[in-house]
Amino acid sequence: MSITSAGSLIGSVIALTAATAVTAEVPRVATDIAPVHSLVARVMDGLGTPDLVVRAGGSPHDYSLRPSEARALERADAVFWVGPALEPWLGGSIDTLAPEALVVELLDAPGTVTLDFREGAVFDDHDHGDGAHGSTHDEAHETDAAHDDHDHDDDHEEHDHEGTDPHAWLDPENGKVWLDLIADELAALDPENADTYRGNAAAGRDEIDAAMADARAALSSAGEIEFVVFHDAYHYFENRFGISAAGAISLSDASDPSPARIEEVRDRVRDLGVACVFSEPQFNQNLVETVTEGTSARAAVIDPIGLDLEEGPGFYPALIRSVAEDIAGCAS
Asked: Which residues lie within the region annotated Disordered (predicted)?
């Protein structure tokens, strides 16, 4: 072997060894739902890929882990999830399968804007929103604020929906807060790649800002929007973009609404001349048909968890655009 060839071989071995060392130091990360997975994937871009535990198509409120998903938790150095308000079953699995992992509940993260669940089948705040389409609301509860308890006498058969609404990923300002938190936590676990994590988070924030601008433009072009949603998952999105649903067919995606609730929502649709009633791709479409029967409302589909979107770093800004386009598209 010539000196040149030997030198090339040695250089290749050194490069491979260095690359392997960097890869070995990157934490193994598990996440709960696709929007959180996307934010973590954006921060880890170029270094590694997180594992998704709650697959699209399943309800995060009530989900059974597959063996591969349980293994993802077992090998995780860090777990990022919304928290028990969204996935009451997951905390026990994390404690059992990932007892040594860093665990971050994003809903409790400093700087996260949180909102309380809305009461009843129809929403009282619908008639006095404080922002035009495309604007944001400046006031919201922080994670350390006290939350009032609410009684839901008309829906005894549904899960407890008092306190904080966990669908906080649909406020893109929360997505930006979480990007920075994820970067800081991973930088602490993996200091050698800290600059990459934080640079990726900064780029991700810019991408979310662009998605927010597109969402505002889409909603503004649609004009006044009267709509009802399948379940009350969009409060954060509405609050951020200055729109408001007239009501929700169900408070939860984990149980069916009572006949009385359906009747109340149908009356609301008729009385307000609601243009759109949104179903979700994985749930009972017949309920939407029942609510729109005898009215001029159209049925359309909207998805708070991005069932049809491609997983990965681009998923989160695509989700923000998708929700806005779905709402605006039905109204136009």
From this structure: 125-170
